[in-house]
Amino acid sequence: MNRRDFLRTTAAAGVTIAGGFALAQSAPRPLPLLPLTDLTGGIDTRLPLTLARATHDFGTGAASPTLGINADYLGPLLRIKQGQTLPVDVRNTLDETTTLHWHGLHIPGDVDGGPHQEIAPGATWSPDVPITQRASMNWFHSHMHGATARQTYHGLAGVLLVEDDASLSADLPQTYGVDDFTLVLQDKMFNGAGEMDYFVSGEVFEDGFEGDTMVINGAIAPVAQTVPTGLIRLRLLNACNARFLTLSMATGPVRVIATEGGFLASMVETDSIVMSPGERYEILVDLRTDDTNSLNVGFGDGEGLLGLLGGLFGGGGGDQTLLTLTRGADTGFTGALPDQLANLPPANPADATKTRTFQLNMGGSAQLAALAADWGNICGGGVMAINGMPMKMDRIDEEVRKGETELWRISADDMQHPFHIHGCSFRIISQQGATPPAYAQGWKDMVHVEDGWSEVLLRFDYDAPATAPYMYHCHILEHEDCGMMGQFTVT
Ligand code: C2O
Ligand code: CU
Ligand code: CU
Question: Does ligand 1 have an atom closer than 6 angstroms to the CB of 422?
């Protein structure tokens, strides 16, 4: 459970790539768009979401076995407005049980889609999902305990944008596929035949599954898109199982306008952003005068095989191009860069009436590992836990009172972990012992955890009974499946 193990994994993966399907820095492919289902104008029927086996060509020429939601890989981009209720029929045509969780939504536990809302093969789950929160970028993915990592990796994920009156009338680009793009960023492994690969091992459980090839909306990067002159809005989701991504622009700063739970108070300009698995950010790219710009991912020392490839294939200091935007003949949104974006109240830790403490554990005794296996956590002989307890489906770890402000403090024994809490958006008071970067000071549902305390201020406004509790967990999906997750009620 340490950095030596991490290096061992990287070395093993290097053997795979040498004989495998190495595609770094090939010619750009067109950027695929997630199919848009725009419900903001009204909803007159239940929305079918059909989970099915499929095959998908990521750009290698091979048909990779995948899972899809109304598509051969990933799901649609759902767009809905605050105040609406989403009536959805999630049909499971797979030969295995699954669930579909609405990551980021402030909704009651019984429609949250967590591990207790299992959808058996052939069954349909039909929640009515009330959308009460402000404009925000959310997503949905499998949350089947013990299978979340594999099912999500194979494609059971999609994006749900919530809009509100303010966001719809905001002076920002919002024409989907023209000046407003949603990017699902993932890292994948491909085998020698060009098929997407997934495997687990003791090392994969330790580090999480990390691929050597970046994929955007199901196409191997780099991808390219022609856009109109003006501002371009990119809504980014890190849907990697385990990889943190350091993103920057080829030219100029990253201009961040929103975190996962809403707009920032004002635009933040920064050299780069670090996105953990599960995080979302919205950024603006200014192509009013620049002819082109690219979104890059950087890999520093110790960041694994992609760092090595980035170095080998050039691309400036280990940077690899993900997406290149180039101006065409049209004129698009030519308004100014925004100044004020939203009214973001200051987060005051003194508002908390209760403090809870969570320690993320890796390792543990053989006895605990046996217990974890007994409790349905899939692990490679190790064990993941929170406060010494691996996830157990019929144990409630915390009981929270609805409407009360709490401070949750999280730290980790080893490694860096992306921590996620269901049922709310929170504000980060401290992250890994420090003030969070300005771009992470808005509404969040993910926080980075390593040494030092990460502290978040939160409040839950909906019920989650013991039959449908909320989860808190590490969003390295193999860690989650392996037991780094806990359950809480809100009453
Ligand atoms: Cu994105 Cu509990 O999950
Ligand atoms: Cu969630
Ligand atoms: Cu973790």
Answer: yes
- CATH topology agreement for domains 172-331 and 349-490: yes
Assign domain 349-490 one CATH number from 2.30.30.30, 1.10.645.10, 2.60.40.420, 2.60.120.10. 2.60.40.420
Write the single-letter amino acid at 144. Answer: M
Q: Are 471 and 422 in contact (CB under 8 A)?
A: yes
Number of the ligand 1 atom closest to the C-alpha atom of 104: 1
Distance CA 200, CA 195 (A): 16
CB atoms within 10 A of CB 241: 26
Q: Is 392 in the pocket of ligand 1 (CB under 6 A)?
A: no
Read off the DSSP letter of residue 439.
G
Query: How many angstroms separate the alpha carbon of residue 35 from the centre of ligand 3?
Result: 31
Residue 42 is which amino acid? G
pLDDT of 462 higher than 80: yes
At 306 the pLDDT is 52
pLDDT in tens, 430-441: 999 999 999 999
Amino acid found at 468: A
Q: Could you identify the atom of ligand 1 that is nearest to the CA of residue 422?
A: 2
**What are the angstrom distances between the C-alpha of 397 and each of 89, 379, 387?**
31, 21, 10
- According to CATH, the topology of domain 29-169 is Immunoglobulin-like (2.60.40)
Question: Does ligand 1 lie within 6 Å of residue 101's CB atom?
Answer: yes
Assess whether the C-beta atom of 116 lies below 6 angstroms from ligand 1. no
The verdict on the CB of residue 115 being under 6 Å from ligand 1 is no
DSSP character at residue 60: S
- Which residue has its alpha carbon closest to ligand 1 atom 1? 103
Q: Could you tell me which of 300, 299, 303, 296 has the C-alpha nearest to residue 321?
A: 296
pTM of the model: 0.93
**Phi, psi for residue 485 in degrees, rounded to 5:** -155, 150
The topology (CATH level 3) of 172-331 is Immunoglobulin-like (2.60.40)
Over residues 251-305, the pLDDT tens digits come to 999 999 999 999 999 999 999 999 999 999 999 999 999 999 999 998 644 444 5
Evaluate: CB of 278 within 6 angstroms of ligand 1: yes
Q: How far is the CA of 264 from the centre of ligand 3 (A)?
A: 27
Non-local CB neighbours of 438 within 8 Å, separated by 6+ positions = 268, 270
Q: What's the pLDDT tens digit per position in 45-78?
A: 999 999 999 999 999 999 999 999 999 999 999 9
Cβ(143) to ligand 1 under 6 A? yes
Q: Could you tell me the residue ranges of all domains in the chain?
A: 29-169, 172-331, 349-490
Joined tokens for residue 369? 């590992």
Determine the Cα–Cα distance for residues 289 and 251; give it in Å rounded to an integer: 12
Burial of 259 (0-12, 13-18, 19+ CB in 10 A): buried
